[in-house]
Amino acid sequence: PAPKADPAPEAAPAPEAAPAPEADPEAEADxxxxxxTAPDPDAxxxxxxAPDPDAxPDPDAxPDPxxxxxxLTGLAIAALAWLRPELAPAAIVLLIHVSRRGRRAxxxxxxxxxxxxxxxxxxxxxxFGSPLPLSAQAKPPExxxxxxxxxxxxxxxFGGLGVVPLALSTREDRDRRTWPVLVLVxxxxxxxxxxxxxxxxRLFVPVLPVYALAASGPVARRLARRPRLAGGALxxxxxxxxxxxxxxxxxxxxxxxxxxxxxxRALAARIEALGGPLATVDVGYLAYRAGVEVVDLGGITDPRxxxxxxxxxxxxxxxxxxxxxxxxLLLLHSTRPPxxxxxxxxxxxxxxxxxxxxxMRWVRTHxxxxxxxxxxxxxxxxxxRRRE
Length: 388
Hints:
By secondary structure, this protein is of the alpha/beta class. The protein has 16 helices and seven strands.
């Protein structure tokens, strides 16, 4: 019989597929995984180099526009050098504050400020022969008067209690600590300069915005939480005295302006008609309005008089020096009505230098009273002219 055929070989079983890896639950949380891309060989050319962890930090690498702001600060301080010399210490505090913003900002601010200061010093040397303000020689500071001026300003400008939020801001507002220091330094500078005689505490006006900025933080925080009694007390205590003082002095200030517009203009017109030179202590409005040459008896605008012995409006003016200046008019002031007999000035209660001039034999011989003008309460002008 034929041999039995071998059965067809069975097909090899297909290999089992490898089990799929379990999905990563964290991967499933990413709904839009970034596709893998081939690295761009040109990408590193435009990319910023990686920072060196060992490199020193750049103090000027600040995102804030500090340099333009520092330039404005430097320009403002340069202008102050010409306008208000007693603000120099406060300006230095401000420059130190700006210096903390970076070396570049500090360099810009200090350069501009020093340029302004050096320019005004050069001007004084050329015009007056001294680097100091002429007023520093004409009005030597009186510390007693300066201390009184600052004490009255604490009450009538800051309200007395207003110094409390100013002190609190040094502890509560770290980013504003410079401002209370600036106000304090300026107050000390004003006291050392001898204060001022004019109403309104004008020497403190430039720092009032700084004071308000520093004091507003502590007051606002105490008004925002209950009870609001502490914040209300600080607010009212800081404002009540300045408001009352302003309301009481406002009529007097308005009367002064009205006197200038009426009696002041008439007196200036008479001085202009008679012609100068005019010797007087009040070298402001009347001399400017009359437009005549001035012999400054107080020395504010005259370096020769400013360097004479004596304090403000109390210079030891020599008769020969006054005669050499050859004034045609004398304008003196008196706190009470002066005594005039037959056109001759017999007595007045004025500044020491005015009383000295009125007693000079040369003045009594060559001058006659032209008119007496009651300018304001407690302020009388005596105009004397040369005899024909």
